[in-house]
Amino acid sequence: MLDYALLDALASVVRTGSFERAARQIGVTPSAISQRVKLLEERVGAVLVIRGQPCKGTEAGLRLARHADEVALLERTLSLDLGRGALDGRMPTIRIAVNADSLATWFVGAMAAVPDCLFDLVLDDQEHSAEWLRRGEVRAAVSGSDAPVQGCDCRPLGTLRYIATASPAFVRRWFADGVSAQTLSRAPALTFNTKDMLQARWIEAHVGEGIVPPTHWLPSSQAFVDATLAGLGWGLNPEGLVSDAIAAGRLVPLLSDAAYDVPLYWHWSRSVATALRPLNAAVGETARAMLRPPHAPAG
What we know:
This protein is an alpha/beta fold and 299 residues long.
């Protein structure tokens, strides 16, 4: 039987990256946290924390920390069902994988609708976020795929619409002769990271395959918009982040009627499905309000 006071200490160290911050979070001394982690390491026969700045969990330590978070979430739900409120007044942490554009456009609203939880977000491309669930490293994920994940349920959320945009000055410089394979092969594009395939797929859908434009690498949704406004390059931005700039003439679509819709799905672990019910409801309601309906046609 695992000692959950020891697990709680480990989870706090892994989450905060520091024995001192973990001690303040739990309300004990750093020495007590260190002793608890050391005792847990002795009991499981493995190193659980790599001491440093910051401290990091080993593979075994991360697995145990996730287990502690899951137990805390389940215990909170049980306590609320019994009408007792939170057992110790502390809020459980839910770890979620989400793509940066969802976080920048609608997902924060869902988080705000569940005020009695803490969130630990992992940012990844929507085409890869479900992998975090498959590895058991998160309890839920916003994904661009409805492919089943073992031990998880899934439901569609809607579509996040993107528009290929650039500043008027950028269009005059690089697309004076129109948007074509030739001009796209020369005009600098914006790319979030190596997993970002939006620009490539938009080119394939509207111009043709085999074009690899020169690109700036900008791993930030807001920086993407700012760079587009500054004339650094062209890129696909979420409609909600650029609609005002388009209306004001500060950005222009590269092609009319060429929006790119990305379907989004919500996956969650069945093992904590009851505990996640309020979050699942908030995610669904926020998505209905902020996203386009599933499979809505472009235009």
